[in-house]
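Propose amino acids for all 92 sites.
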């Protein structure tokens, strides 16, 4: 999970310290609806790749979906540890 934490730290840094030509910054500036739209697009792409049983595309689209969910969490000021905590709670 270290890579998730690393990517999430970059996303949070882009929110605090916007950089020109940053994809994350462009999503933040376009707002919640654009971020949600991207999550929807990536979810559909993952479903299609899965239905066609294309392993490499499933992996690629899963990474895209997770990335955009991380952007949403950063936008909403929700920490990954809160998600990890919920997952731990469900495991018990």
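Proposal:
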């Amino acid at each position: 999970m270290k890579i998730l934490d690393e990517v999430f730290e970059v996303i949070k840094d882009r929110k605090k310290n916007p950089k020109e030509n940053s994809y994350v910054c462009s999503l933040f500036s376009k707002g919640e609806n654009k971020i949600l739209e991207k999550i929807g697009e990536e979810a559909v792409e993952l479903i299609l790749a899965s239905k066609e049983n294309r392993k490499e595309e499933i992996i690629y689209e899963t990474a895209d979906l997770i990335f955009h969910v991380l952007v949403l969490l950063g936008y909403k000021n929700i920490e990954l540890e809160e998600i990890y905590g919920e997952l731990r709670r469900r495991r018990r």
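The chain has one domain: 2-91. The chain has a mean pLDDT of 97.
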